[in-house]
Amino acid sequence: MPKLGAEPIRKAALINAAIQEVGRAGSLDVTVAQIARSAGMSPALAHHYFGSKDQMFLAAMRHILAGYGRSVHDALPGKGPRGRLDAIVTASFAPRNFQREVISAWINFYALALTNEQAARLLRIYHCRLHSNLIVALRPLTGHPARTAQTLGALIDGVYLRAVLTPGPTDAALGLKIITEYLEEALA
Prior knowledge:
Blueprint: H1 6-25, H2 32-39, H3 43-50, H4 53-75, H5 81-92, H6 100-113, H7 117-138, H8 145-165, H9 172-187
């Protein structure tokens, strides 16, 4: 008989293991067996919970996106458009979001979106929400909020890409500095 309440704990362990293994490998070229071993369970149990490796990766990305959303919410000061803008940017470089494994998962998620419709849909939703939230924050601050939001989103993606391709520890302070300098210039 299965233990009551074990499923969410096991799923969370598999999701975290998927993020760690993708981060270590630097690609989606990891097996369900590797992920399950890292989580301390059998590949059969991993397949039982997720059905396929792609479904496990999608669950991992939903987990990462939810963490990002919590980071934005936690950073919201509750007043002013610049505070909202700063919260969105700060969340992108929060410790839980800007670690090598998570960044690697993001980059590989983009690659998965090229071939997997569910991943492509999830990525479109994320991009639309980010763009919309940035426009809401930027509208009172600049005469060209859509262009600034588009550039800011691309700049954040670029900082993530460079961070994962640079050996050694990630540097959230440098990423935040690059984005902040762009914003100071764009909003002047």
